[in-house]
What we know:
Keywords: Receptor, Transcription, Transcription regulation. It comes from Caenorhabditis tropicalis. This protein has about 170 residues and is mostly helical. The protein has a domain at about 5-25 and about 80-170. The protein has 8 helices and no strands. The radius of gyration is 17 Å and the shape is flat.
Amino acid sequence: MFFxxxxxxxxxxLIGHVTLIxxxxxxxxxxxxxxxQLCMQPDGTEQPKNDEYNYQTDSMSLVPxxxxxxxxxxxxxxxxxxxxxxxxHGLSEHxxxxxxxxxxRYANALLDYCLKNRNGxxxxxxxxxxxxxxxxxxxxxxxxxxxxxxxxxxxxxxHIFQFLEDIMFA
Length: 170
């Protein structure tokens, strides 16, 4: 693994950027693996509910995973690729090199898996990588909802969840 090779500042920057993407992929995969087409948390609760204003944003990564019929191994490798994003603003050049090398390893492993286990391996590989822009767009929308709708309310609370704020403003 590469994380221990990063400086603390780079770790914080990377985590702040990839947390929502990885969480959305995790929650969507969990729902798909349970054969449900709704936003389901790993504890089995449905959140948000279908009638909540942010449901469409929070559920947008379900469709590509259902369409792809993503397998567990593919999910793990895709999540690792999402985690290893060397283009995150604020990373040092040293961190970018380490993360890019690691991302390439996971991308190669996913391609190899697709070639060995799927008909049309290259097409499958491209289809899986096509999920990443959906996750990035979903993250952007969630951050916008937080900044414009949620943050004004929680800023008046006595205890601000600083880590959540750091993620949403990253």
